Amino acid sequence: MKLPRQILCPDGKTEVEHTPDSSRARSSWVVRSFTNRLAEPLRRLLAGDSLSEAQVKAEEKKKDNKDSRAVSALKLEKRASEFGEMVVMKTLKSEELDRIMLDEQGSIKRQKVEGAVHVVDDDQQGSSLQRRRRQLQPRGDCPYLDTVNRQVLDFDFEKKCSVSLEKLDVYACLVCGKYYQGRRKNTHAYTHSLEADHHVYINLQNEKVYCLPDGYEILDPSLDDIRHILNPRFTVEQVAQLDKNRQWSRALDGSDYLPGMVGLNKLQGTDFMNVTIQSLMRVTPFRNFFLIPENYQHCQSSLVQCFGELTRKIWHARNFKGQVSPHEFLQAVTEVSKKRFCIGQQSDPLEFLQWLLKALHAELKNSKNNSVIYDCFQGEFEVMKETDGKTGDDDVLMEKSRMPFLVLGLDLPPQPLFKDVMDKSIIPQVSLFDILKKFDGDTATEVVRPQRAWMKYRITKLPKYLILHMQRFKENNFFIEKNPTIVNFPLKNLELKDYIPLPRKIEKSPSKYDLIANLVHDGRPKEGSYRVFVHRKSEELWYEMQNLHVSETLPQMVALSEAYLQIYEQHH
User: Fold this and answer.
1) Helix (H, G, I), strand (E, B), or coil: what is residue 356?
2) Are 265 and 326 in contact (CB under 8 A)?
3) CB neighbours (10 Å) of residue 220?
4) How far apart, in whole angstroms, are the C-alpha atoms of residue 142 and residue 46?
5) Is 473:481 a contact under the CB 8 Å cutoff?
6) Helix/strand/coil for 97
C-alpha cells in the first residue's frame, strides 16, 4: 500500500495526495495558484481601490516567488523519491525565504538564509531536540561487494587508524585492507572512499559493514567469513571436539594447515614468546577458557583480551592464511610489562612464562584469589631451612614453611672442570628422576645467599599441569655459561610417587604425567634460538614448531633434545 504524500502548494498550504498519480494534486494547486493571482487585483478593482504600477509589480513578484518555491519543492520531491524515500514537505511557520538543498545521499537539509539558523540533518551525532537525524536503511544489494579483496585482509595487527593513529571508531577498508577512522563526512575513512574509490568498510568493534560515502549498512551473508576472521567464535560443542579433530584446513592461498598447529610470525627476536604461546596452547582447560570470550568479558585488560583473540585465531579452522601474527598481543605485552618484553629484544622464555601467568592471574582472579591459571598450574611444596646458629657450630636453627609454585626448577649436575682428551666429544647425560630427588624431602641443597643454609623441599600438592625448568644457564662475574647436559625423560607415564614420597592425603590422587610440550634452546647463550616440540592428541603425533616452521617429527627426536622447559599433563 502506497502512503499518501503531502504536497507543498504555492499558497503556503499543504495538500495530501491520496491517488498514486500525482497529476491530480499538481493540477489542483496550479489552477488555484492562478486563481489566487487574479482574485486579489479583481477584489481591489471591485472595491474601488487604485493600485499603482509599482504595487502591481510587487504583488506579481511576490506571487512569482511563491510559485518558483513550490516548483522547486516538487522537483526536490521527485528527485528524493528516486532514492526510495517518502518526502514530506511541511509548511514553514516563518515568512522568510528558506533554501532547501538535497545532498548526495538523498537526505534533505534546510538552512535559514535570514534569522535564526535552522538545524541541519546529521546521521552520526546530535540529540533529537537539536538535530534531525535521518537513518539510512540497511541494504543487501550493494553494487560494490565484488570489489572486496580477501587476499589483502589482515586483522592481526593493532587496530588503529593508519593516518591519525587513533584507536576509537576504526574501520578496515575491505578493498585494500588499511585501517581508517570514522565514516562521517571529512573523516579519514570517508576521504579514502572518495580518493581511492574504495566503498566497503567494516567496523573493527561491532563488525558492521558500511558503504561509503553513501553511509548505509550492508546486510549480506557473504561477508560472514570476514567477520569470523576478525573475531573467531567457538561454541561449547566445538571446543569439546578440538582434541578429536583430525581434519586439515585450507587457506585462501591454497596452503594447508592444522588448526592449533599454525605457525607464528617472528617479529625480530620474539621466538621466545612464540614457543611459550605454542606450549600453553596444549594445556586443554587453559585453552578452552580463552576460546570462549564470555568467560572473561568482564575483564577490560588489553593483555587478557589480546591473548584470548590470539588463542581463537590459532585454533580457528577458517583462516585466510596458514599462519598468525602475534603483533597485537606483543603490543599489549610491551605496554603492560613496561617494555620488559618487546620487539627486537631477546628474552628468557622462563621469565616471560612466569610473568605472563602472574599477569593473567592478577586480571582474572576472583574474590577467593583463584583463577584458571592457578587451577591448572599451581602446586605446593614444603620448605625446611637449616641454618647455623649464632652461638656455635652445633647450634642449628630449623624453619619450616609451605610455598605455592607454578614452575619447579631442577638443577643439572655441573660439568667437570677438566675434561679428558678422549671425552671432549662426549655430552654428559642425567636421568630426570635423579634431578627430581631434590623434592623428596631428604636431599639437602646448599644455599649461600643471603646466608649459608641447607634447604630441603617436599611436594605437598601436585598441580594438574606440571611445569619443569632445567636450569641450564649460570651467570658468573664474567659471562653466562650454558650446561649442555642431556636430560633423559619419558614421554608418557612419568610416575612421581615412585621417586618422590608424597603425603598421605595426596597418595590417592593422580601422580602420573604425560609430556605435552618440550621447549628447547639451541646455540650459545644470548645468541641462540628457541623451538618447541608439541604433542597433538587427536593423532598421537609430535610436531616441531619454530616461528613459521611446523613439521611432524619422531618421538625419539624429542627425547634427544636439550630440554629447557617442559609441561606435563596429569594422567587420569
Assistant:
1) helix
2) yes
3) 15
4) 63
5) yes
6) coil
Residue extent(s) of CATH 3.90.70.10 domains in the chain: 233-348, 379-570
Class for the domain spanning 233-348? alpha beta
Which architecture characterizes domain 379-570 according to CATH? Alpha-Beta Complex (3.90)
Query: Looking at residue 427, what is its pLDDT?
Result: 79
Which ranges of 437-519 does DSSP label H, i.e. alpha helix?
Answer: none
Burial class (CB in 10 A: 0-12, 13-18, 19+), 285: exposed
Round to whole Å and give the CA distance between 375 and 307.
18
Residue 186 region, left (φ>0) first, then alpha (ψ -120 to 50), else beta?
A: left
CA 241, chain centre distance (Å)? 23
Interior/surface letters 436-475, b for 16+ CB within 10 angstroms, e for the rest: bebbebeeeeeeeeeeebebbbbbbbbbbbbbbbbebeee
Q: State residue 312 phi and psi, 5-degree precision.
A: -65, -35
The full length of the chain comes to 572
**Dist. CA 556–CA 547, nearest whole Å:** 22
Q: How many other C-beta atoms can be found within 10 angstroms of the C-beta atom of residue 102?
A: 16
Q: Which three cell numbers stand for residue 183?
A: 565514516
Under CATH, which architecture does the 145-228 domain have? Answer: 2-Layer Sandwich (3.30)
Q: Percent helix, strand and coil across the chain, each rounded to 5? A: 30, 25, 45
Q: Mean pLDDT over residues 357-370, rounded?
A: 91
Residue type, 57: K
484 contacts 412 by C-beta, under 8 angstroms: no
Question: Is the CB of residue 266 less than 8 Å from the CB of residue 353?
Answer: no
Distance CA 181, CA 205 (A): 12
Between the alpha carbon of residue 410 and those of residues 184, 319, 542, the distances in Å are 60, 40, 24
Where do runs of H (alpha helix) occur along 391-431? none
CB 333 within 8 A of CB 341: yes
Amino acid letter for position 108: I
Q: Print burial letters for 351-373: b (CB count within 10 Å at least 16), e (below 16).
A: ebbebbbebbbebbeeeeeebbb
Radius of gyration of the chain (CA): 38
The DSSP result for 212-272, as a single string, is TTTTEEB--GGGHHHHHHHS----HHHHHTGGG----EE-TTS-EE-TT--EE---SS-HH
Delimit the CATH 3.30.40.10 region(s) of the chain: 145-228
Confidence at 371, pLDDT banded by 50, 70, 90 = very high
Lowest mean per-residue pLDDT among 4-13, 295-304, 315-324, 524-533:
4-13
Residue 273 and residue 326 in contact, taking contact as beta carbons nearer than 8 Å: yes
Query: What φ, ψ does residue 230 adopt, rounded to 5°?
Result: -65, -45
On whether the CB atoms of residues 87 and 81 are closer than 8 A, the answer is: yes
- Indicate the pLDDT class of residue 34, thresholds 50, 70 and 90: low
Residue recorded with cell 655430552? 427
Please state at what angle helix 302-314 crosses helix 284-291, rounded to 10 degrees.
Answer: 110
Residue 518 vs residues 89, 282, 468, 514: alpha-carbon distances, Å: 75, 11, 10, 11
Pairing of strands 408-411, 465-471: parallel
